[in-house]
Every structure is written in structure tokens, then in C-alpha cells.
Design goal:
The chain is an alpha/beta fold. It contains 14 helices and 26 strands.
């Protein structure tokens, strides 16, 4: 039965499996009994400094047990933690504190202009403190505010409840088929949704969390693997790349020990994926689709038939998938020919953006968080992304996903790369065009014939433009505004 908060699970496991490791570092660990005791003692210390229920508290995040204890103790009191990057300067901390009406900052240095405490000083008082006896939070009580930066660059405070935390944790736990004795390494920052949700899912599962601060000190990873018999990892694609860069194929030595790896935060490079699968053929490899606003909404098993172009997996157990139009109205009969905007509902959905009623109204409809992703569910219940709403080419009423055409075109040996786009057209509204990086021996007629054999006629580019490289982000995503700019410049210059 689902409990009301992560704290409920910690308390109960402290009674039912007191000697099992809950949280670990390389040279430090706490059992569930010790973890719960330290949380309660820390709550007493915080209360002695007049930190109270309902108070917003900015906490500088570190990848340590002490940070998790402080974070949990704040929740036990009923205060609302706002975790921030450990590298943030005092000015930025004050900016965030002002945005979320924080009364207190807990950091490792003094912060002027607000009541502040050094985390190390607070923790020094913990061993001698009494264990607080407080009621545990209710499911709908606020659990935290995750301060995030969206694609627009505007910083937003995502308000979450304890119900959100537990429901998202269940999505991860069930989605990865987490074993009861799971031991997981989390190098991802705990002030980000990805890292925090991994920690919470392991706690709900009654497993063990191993903390490390990124992959720069790669030796720590192998020591943790040996010391605690690690069975899973949460990695960003960049972290996986660093493992390969710094340690070659060493991760393959643990192929019989590891159950699964979950990838998140960015697309996984195909070469790294194939290398990992080769080294660890029995490893379950997952990718979660989600956001700070609606966490872990969909999960993809890379080793399953679901792993195909555009598929982000299947909706997770506590996720409700909906399709809406640009105005947030529910759309029926969504399919490959008629995709619509993807929206997510259920207990995973945030309460609101803090003090942003207009932005909340623009983002949420009927309790669902809307995305900018155009998608549909196929006959097997898999969620297929066809592109961003602002990327879709509308050719005389026919909506075309650029990614589909690009994936097809890149199989032609005569090109290095390409980008499918459009230009304004008086008759059709938009005219499909393609920006191409030629390979040696490029033949225009042969390329068009290649596409015509594989695409519906309405998806065919009507014009072709050429460049030396396709503008992309460091993660490999196409910069479609820059692509349109190149095309428009060539049109104006008469180059085609």
C-alpha cells in the first residue's frame, strides 16, 4: 500500500529492516535505523534555530549523507526545502531565495541579506540532540520546490507534494523492475529531479543508495562497486561517456553483478549504447521521459521491441497520458496520421509553479501538464514522438515530422547529414525543403529517387539547399531556427 511520504518509508524500514544500509558514501554509511535517528535529531537542531513548519528554506546541495539528512529533517519539521546547486554564488542564491520567499539559507558559507546557517555547524550539534517526535507529513502537504530552468531560460519554482514524490518513486521502482535488495550508485546532483527521484525510488523500495560526486574521480565508482556490491546506476549520457573515457571497458567487469542502468537528462549516443550492450549483454538499459513538472512519465527498455525510431516507451504506472490541441482542449482519435500535443496527468503532476499563476495556467489543463511534443500511442500502447509542435511542417494541411524524414534521408550514402525544414509558401502555407551536407559522389537525382521509394509523396522535399554543416547543440539536437535562417539566406541569395 502506498504511504503518504518518503519519510513514512524511512521510519517503517527503520523498524522492519533496521540494520540494512540506507545511504552510503565511500567512507561513511547509515543503516535505516541510524538514518531515521539522525533525521529526527537534526530536526531538533533545526527547530532550536527557529526553523518551523511552512518555512521555505534554501539548501545548498552536496552529494553527501549529511545533505540528505538535512533535507529530510526539514521535511520532517514541515518546512519546504529548496535545493540549489553547490556551485551557486551568494548573489544567485539570494535571487532564488527571493523568488521563492525563503526565510533561511543553509549553505557551507555565510550568505548576507538573509538568515543563514552553515550546514557543517548545524550537523556538529546533531550527535548530542534529542530525537524529535513529530507527526509525519500528509500526502498532499508540500514536499519541496525544485528550482528549474526551462527551455525558455526563465527560472521556475516547481511546487511538489509528498504524493508526487511517492508516485514518481513508484514509477521508477516498477518501471525498472527494481529488486528488493537493489544497491544503486547515484552520481547525479540531488538538487535535480533526476538524482532526487532516483534516491526516493530506492528508499521506497527499501534498497540502498550510494552517493558520489560525479565521475571526475572515477576510482570512487569502482571502490563503491566493490564495497557495496552495487547492482544499478543512474547516469546521464555524459557520465557514461566519462566512464568510457576514463576507464575504457572496465564497466564490463561487472556484467554479472549489475541488473540495470537508467539513463536520463539527455539522449544517449548510439555508439555508447551499443558499446554498453556489448560489454554487458544481460544488462537492462532504461531511459525515462519526463520533466520536473511531471516526473518519469514514460519508460523505454532499450533491449525490448519498443526500442524503435521515435518511441519513448510506455506510460509508467502512475502516469495518465492525454492528447490536447494548442489551447489545451482534449483531442480524440490521435494516431500516426493525426498526432497531437502530449500531456501528462495523474499523481505525478506538480501542484503549480510557485507564484506564477499565469504560467501555471498556460502549462496545465484539467490537472495535466502540457508539453510541446507532438505524439501518438500506437496499437501496442507505445508512445511515439514525432517532433516538437513548433518543428512540425504543415504542408497544405498535412503535418510532417522532420525527424522521420531526416532518419530516412541519413541512410543515403551520398550525404553526410541533413535537416528537414520549410519555407513560407503562398499556396500551401509551408513548403517542405531540405538542407543537405553533401558526401563525396552526391547525386541529386539518385537522392530524390532514394527518398521517393521510402516516403509518402507529400513528405518529399520540394527544394534542396546545401551547407557545410548542420547547426546543432552540444547534445546533438538540431537548432531548427538556425537551419531556417541558413535556408532563408540562401533563398535571398538565389542559392539552391
Amino acid at each position: 500500500m502506498r504511504k503518504d511520504s518518503i519519510l513514512h518509508y524511512i521510519r517503517d524500514y527503520a523498524q522492519t529492516q533496521p540494520d540494512k544500509y540506507a545511504v552510503c558514501e565511500l567512507r561513511k554509511s547509515l543503516t535505516y535505523r541510524e538514518y531515521w535517528e539522525k533525521i529526527r535529531k537534526t530536526a531538533s537542531v533545526l527547530a532550536s534555530h527557529d526553523i518551523e513548519k511552512g518555512m521555505h528554506v534554501v539548501v545548498r546541495c552536496t552529494q553527501t549523507i549529511d545533505y540528505l539528512v538535512l533535507f529530510s529533517a526539514l521535511q520532517y519539521i514541515g518546512a519546504i526545502p529548496i535545493p540549489v546547486e553547490k556551485t551557486l554564488g551568494a548573489d544567485r542564491i539570494m535571487e532564488i531565495a527571493g523568488a521563492v520567499d525563503a526565510a533561511v539559507v543553509i549553505a557551507d558559507e555565510e550568505v548576507e541579506g538573509i538568515r543563514a546557517y552553515k550546514n557543517k555547524e548545524l550537523m556538529k550539534a546533531v550527535p548530542e540532540a534529542d530525537e524529535a517526535e513529530l507527526p509525519l507529513p500528509a500526502a498532499n502537504d508540500l514536499s519541496m520546490i525544485l528550482f528549474t530552468t526551462g527551455t525558455t531560460g526563465k527560472s521556475k519554482g516547481v511546487v511538489l507534494t509528498h504524493l508526487n514524490d511517492v508516485a514518481i518513486a513508484e514509477n521508477v521502482m516498477y518501471g525498472t523492475q527494481m529488486a528488493p535488495d537493489n544497491v544503486e550508485v547515484i552520481p547525479m546532483p540531488l538538487n535535480h529531479a533526476f538524482g532526487m527521484r532516483r534516491y526516493q525510488s530506492d528508499i521506497v523500495n527499501g534498497g540502498t543508495v550510494c552517493l558520489m560526486d560525479g565521475m571526475a574521480f572515477i576510482g570512487t565508482l569502482w571502490k563503491l562497486m566493490e564495497k557495496y556490491r552495487v547492482t544499478s546506476m543512474a547516469l546521464s549520457p555524459a557520465s557514461l561517456g566519462m566512464i568510457f573515457q576514463l576507464s575504457g571497458d572496465r564497466i564490463g567487469e561487472y556484467k554479472d553483478q549489475m541488473h540495470y542502468i537508467q539513463i536520463g537528462s539527455a539522449p544517449l549516443m548510439e555508439a555508447d549504447k551499443q558499446r554498453l550492450i556489448h560489454l554487458m549483454p544481460n544488462l537492462r538499459l532504461y531511459n525515462f521521459y519526463g520533466s520536473s513538472e511531471a516526473g518519469c512519465s514514460c519508460i523505454l527498455d532499450f533491449n525490448s521491441p519498443d526500442n524503435k525510431t521515435g518511441c519513448i516507451g510506455r506510460p509508467t504506472v502512475n502516469s495518465v497520458v492525454q492528447f490536447v490541441d494548442e489551447n489545451g482542449n482534449k483531442v480524440e482519435n490521435v494516431d500516426e496520421e493525426h498526432p497531437a500535443l502530449l500531456a501528462w496527468g495523474g499523481p505525478i503532476v506538480m501542484k503549480e509553479y510557485y507564484k506564477e499563476p499565469q504560467l501555471t495556467a498556460e502549462t496545465m489543463t484539467d490537472g495535466c501538464v502540457m508539453t510541446k511534443d507532438m505524439a501518438y500511442l500506437d496499437e501496442e500502447g507505445r508512445c511515439i514522438l514525432v517532433g516538437r509542435s513548433d518543428d512540425i511542417v504543415n504542408y497544405g494541411g498535412s503535418k510532417i515530422a522532420p525527424a522521420e524524414v531526416e532518419d530516412c534521408a541519413r541512410d543515403y550514402d551520398g550525404i553526410v547529414d541533413c535537416a528537414y525544414s520549410s519555407r513560407p509558401d503562398a499556396i500551401t502555407g509551408e513548403l517542405p525543403v531540405m538542407l543537405v551536407v553533401k558526401n563525396e559522389g552526391y547525386d541529386q537525382a539518385a537522392f530524390e529517387a532514394f527518398l521517393a521509394e521510402r516516403l509518402e509523396s507529400y513528405k518529399m522535399p520540394r527544394e534542396y539547399y546545401f551547407t557545410d554543416s548542420i547547426p546543432k547543440t552540444f547534445k546533438g539536437s538540431l537548432l531548427r531556427k538556425d537551419i531556417k535562417k541558413i535556408i532563408n539566406e540562401q533563398i535571398q541569395g538565389g542559392n539552391q
